[in-house]
Every structure is written in structure tokens, then in C-alpha cells.
Design brief:
heterodimer, A: mainly alpha, about 85% helix, flat, B: about 260 residues, mainly alpha, MetI-like fold, 11 helices, globular
Chain lengths: ~270, ~260
């Protein structure tokens, strides 16, 4: 009887799963079909000039053409490199400062006022100042991205270290852990969920600001510059293709970088359930 | 405890004073041109001049008008839509995929497109603010409505509450910690977006525009004091407006713990 029930479950499971996932996929695609159809209708009816409101075929053709000629990947690569450079700098400095503030009362007292003053100012406001100080190009862009994404990283690392349960620290000490082992095996893993949240928020902030900074900093390559430059020639199709790449990278960052990383560390250690 | 607080305060003040003094020393050393790195006194003087001749007020008013218009629009659309998404599955299935596709696009990436579509001016800035503020509002309201304890809904239903009473007396208060968090996050995004949009879609007034325009004339003092004003307004809104909103609603209703969790 058990066996039969098991066989039945095995036999019926895949098809039921397929139907359900197909249904879910269709449900997710449906809104895009509706919006795409409306877009096409508006574009083909000629309510707006085609130059300002290109049809989806045109955007797709431009996208394929720019990708095949290597222009779009080149722009995307430069944007990604800036993002990585700025974010890596922010992560390194931010986690260090945050952990230091969480562990040492002195560091907290001295650093917190400065950070509280800096944090509420939108990073973009500094952009012209950075351009003035460091000249146009990569240096101010990377520094500004790092500056902006450092704040959430610092805050979360600081909160995370302070949130490590006192009893864990004391029991580790009672079991004879020295400072280094205490940090590596108790404080760092304990603070990790917060640190990951901070890194995630920091990367999101960096991403939101980077494209705008590229527009302002007149760098040679980069998706922001691609979109901004296309405005001069009224190439709406190029702009929208660029925005599509930006959306793809944004989704990719979330799905490919953070979710796996979080699963690998925090969820595996049982700190949060996935 | 009080001795400890005094020590924290003293250390905090020391670090601010040291930072300011360090800046002043570098600015006065002449290592950088004074136009690029003005002294604290010059910045304060510029601030007072712009305050007294009234230009600062016009810039602030222009920026506030754009940010409040866009933010208000985002709340007017995002709040009802979020509630509908939380209450009705078909709405959720339709809006959520679109929102997840549009959300990762930074609002400022749309600036050049919007300039082509709507021309230079307030419309672009307001729409960019709207785009930036819409998604946090929408998604927070949605998760807030979904997180309302089903037992409360059933209890209210059993006690004879009709749809309207259910909505105003149970769902909205129950979702309020999330809604307030959404308002807060939306405003933060709006504030960043308005500065960026003003820089890119140049008009004639506005705090973002002032900073960007000052770059042409190497007026670092104007930049620094505008940055300070931007920071002050952002800080004040965060503390005064949203702080008191929270005290008047979720703290009074005893839901503060949910807001932080």
C-alpha cells in the first residue's frame, strides 16, 4: 500500500509540477505582453514621432546591432568595473569602520557624529564637488560610488557587531577563546546577517547613483554616458536599449550575486531561514 | 551612566572640531586653490549672503515643490495600488512582475529619455521623483497589507464589521508600520532623485541646479553651503516629520516593535 502510494506520487509529481510552473511563468509574462501591446499600438499609430517613441522591434534591432558590434558590452563592462571598484572600496572601508565602532566604545564615540552628519546628505549632491576636486573621469566616479555605499555598510556592520549576543561572547571567553578566535568564530559570524544586509543596501545605493554620476562626469564609456550622449542625437531607441541593459544588470546583481552569497553563508549557518 | 554620556558627548564634539580644524588647515595652507577649497568662514559668509538676498529661499522652495509634488503623486498611486495588490490576487499577479522589472532601473537613468519626451523643466524632475518614490511605497504597502494577521480579519468579520470598517479599522492600522516605513524610504529616494534630476535636467532654480551651476564658475563655497542645506532639510524631514508621524500612529497604537522587526 505504501509502495503504491509512493509510486503514484512519483508518477504524478512531475506533470503537476510542470503544469504549475508553466502556469506561473505564463502569469508572469502576461503583464509584459499587455504593456508591450499597448506600447506597440501607441508606437505604430504614430501619436508621437517615431524618433521619440520607437517601436519594440526598433529597440530590439538596435539592441542586437549594438551588442553584436560590441559597443553595448563595452559600455556595460566599464559601468560594471566602476561599480565593482567603488563597491569593493566601500565594503573594505565600511566593514572595517563598522566593526571597529561595534567593538570599541572609543571608536564609536569619535566616529558616530561624523557619520551621522554625512549620512543624510544625498551622495549625488557631492558629485559636482568631487568633479571639481578630482577632475572628470574615473577617479571621482569610483570615489563617489564608494562614499555613497559606505554609509549603509558602516551602519549595518556596527549594529551587527553590537547585536551579537553577550552570552555567546562570554561563553566563548569562558571556553578559552583568545581575541582573534573570538572575532573569527563568534563575532564575525554573529554579525554576518547584518553585514550582508549592509552590503546589499550599499550595492543597491551604488547602483542607483552610478548611472547618474556617469552622466555628470562625462566618462568615455559607460551605460550612463551612452544614454546621456544619445540624447544629443535624439536616439531614443539607443537610450531604451541602454536602459534595458541597466535593468538586466540590476536584476542580475540581485539574483546572481546576493541571493547565492546569502544562501552560502548566512542561511547555511542557520542564522536566518531562506 | 551620565558620566559615560558626558564622555561620549565630549569625544563626539572633539572629533567634529578636529575634522573642521583639519579642513580649515588644509584650506588655508594654499595647497589647493581657494576657489576649490574655501575656508569654513567663506562658506558661512556665502550662506548668509544667499540667505539675506533671498535666493536661497527660492532655491529651497523650487526643490521642495518638485520633491513634494512627485512624492505626493507616488503616494497617491502607490498606496491604493499596494492595498489592492495585497487584497486581490489578480492585481498582485499583474503589477508585481512589472514592478520587479522596473524597480532595478535607477530612476535617474530615465532623465535623458524624459527630457526628450517632456522637454526641459519641472515635468521631468517631478516624474523622476515619482518614479523613484513609487516602488518603495508600493512594495511596502503591499507587504504591510499581506502581513495583517488573518485572525484579526476573521475576528472583525465575526464581530460584524463590513468591508469598509474592516479596511479602515483593521487593515490600514495593521499595515501602518510598513506604510510608514514605505513613506520614509520613498521620501529618502525622492530627495536623492530630485537633486540628481535638477542637475541633469537643468532649470533655473533648485538646490541641485545651484550646485551643478556653481561648478562652471568654480564656486566651491556655494556648492558646500548648498550641500549643507540639502543635508539639513533631509535630516529635519526625517527626524521631525517622520519621527512625529511614527509617534502619533504606531507608537501610540503599541506597534513600534513590529516597525523595527
Amino acid at each position: 500500500m505504501q509502495q503504491v502510494a509512493g509510486d503514484h506520487a512519483i508518477a504524478s509529481k512531475p506533470s503537476a509540477l510542470d503544469a504549475r510552473s508553466l502556469w506561473r511563468a505564463a502569469r508572469n509574462v502576461f503583464p509584459f505582453v499587455v504593456v508591450g501591446a499597448i506600447w506597440e499600438a501607441v508606437a505604430h499609430l504614430g501619436i508621437f514621432p517615431a524618433q521619440f517613441f520607437p517601436s519594440l522591434e526598433t529597440i530590439a534591432a538596435v539592441f542586437v546591432h549594438l551588442t553584436a558590434s560590441g559597443v553595448l558590452p563595452h559600455h556595460a563592462l566599464h559601468t560594471l568595473l566602476r561599480l565593482i571598484a567603488g563597491f569593493a572600496l566601500a565594503a573594505l572601508v565600511g566593514v572595517t569602520i563598522g566593526v571597529l565602532m561595534g567593538r570599541s566604545r572609543r571608536a564609536e564615540d569619535y566616529l558616530l557624529p561624523l557619520i551621522s552628519i554625512g549620512a543624510p546628505i544625498p551622495g549625488l549632491a557631492y558629485a559636482p564637488l568631487f568633479l571639481l576636486w578630482f577632475g572628470p573621469g574615473n577617479v571621482p566616479t569610483v570615489l563617489l560610488v564608494a562614499f555613497v555605499s559606505a554609509f549603509p555598510i558602516i551602519y549595518n556592520a556596527w549594529t551587527g557587531v553590537k547585536a551579537v549576543k553577550d552570552i555567546w561572547v562570554r561563553s566563548a571567553q569562558a571556553m578559552g577563546a583568545d581575541n582573534r578566535r573570538l572575532f573569527r568564530h563568534v563575532i564575525f559570524p554573529g554579525a554576518l546577517p547584518y553585514i550582508m544586509t549592509g552590503l546589499r543596501l550599499g550595492l543597491a545605493q551604488a547602483w542607483r547613483i552610478l548611472v547618474a554620476v556617469e552622466m555628470l562626469a562625462s566618462v568615455q564609456w559607460g551605460l550612463g554616458w551612452l544614454i546621456f550622449g544619445a540624447q544629443e542625437f535624439l536616439n531614443t531607441d539607443v537610450m531604451l536599449a541602454g536602459i534595458a541593459v541597466i535593468a538586466l544588470i540590476g536584476v542580475g546583481l540581485e539574483k546572481l550575486v546576493f541571493q547565492p552569497l546569502e544562501n552560502y553563508t548566512v542561511v547555511r549557518w542557520g542564522m536566518v531561514t531562506s | 551612566m551620565t558620566a559615560e554620556r558626558v564622555r561620549s558627548l565630549r569625544r563626539g564634539l572633539t572629533s567634529i572640531l578636529v575634522a573642521a580644524a583639519l579642513y580649515e588647515v588644509v584650506a588655508r595652507s594654499g595647497y589647493f586653490a581657494p576657489a576649490l577649497m574655501p575656508t569654513v568662514g567663506t562658506v558661512a559668509h556665502t550662506f548668509l549672503t544667499m540667505l539675506l538676498d533671498g535666493t536661497m529661499f527660492i532655491h529651497v522652495a523650487a526643490t521642495l515643490y518638485r520633491v513634494l509634488f512627485g512624492f505626493g503623486l507616488a503616494v497617491a498611486v502607490g498606496l491604493p495600488l499596494g492595498v489592492l495588490m495585497g487584497r486581490f490576487d489578480p492585481v498582485e499577479h499583474f503589477v508585481l512582475p512589472l514592478a520587479s522589472a522596473l524597480m532595478p532601473i535607477p530612476s535617474l537613468a530615465w532623465v535623458p529619455v524624459f527630457i526628450l519626451w517632456f522637454g526641459l523643466g519641472d515635468t521631468v524632475t517631478i516624474l523622476i521623483v515619482f518614479y523613484a518614490a513609487l516602488f518603495p511605497m508600493l512594495l511596502n504597502t503591499w507587504s504591510g497589507v499581506r502581513s495583517v494577521n488573518p485572525i484579526w480579519l476573521r475576528a472583525a468579520g465575526a464581530m460584524g464589521a463590513d468591508e469598509q470598517a474592516l479596511f479602515w479599522k483593521v487593515i490600514i492600522p495593521g499595515a501602518s508600520p510598513f506604510i510608514i516605513a514605505g513613506l520614509r524610504q520613498s521620501f529618502l529616494r525622492s530627495w536623492i532623485a530630485v537633486i540628481g534630476a535638477e542637475m541633469l535636467a537643468a532649470s533655473n532654480w533648485g538646490l541641485g541646479w545651484v550646485i551643478f551651476d556653481a561648478k562652471q564658475f568654480l564656486n566651491a563655497d556655494v556648492m558646500l553651503e548648498s550641500i549643507a542645506v540639502i543635508g539639513l532639510i533631509g535630516f529635519a524631514t526625517e527626524r521631525l516629520v517622520f519621527g512625529s508621524l511614527e509617534r502619533a500612529t504606531i507608537y501610540r497604537w503599541g506597534m513600534a516593535r513590529m516597525a523595527t522587526g
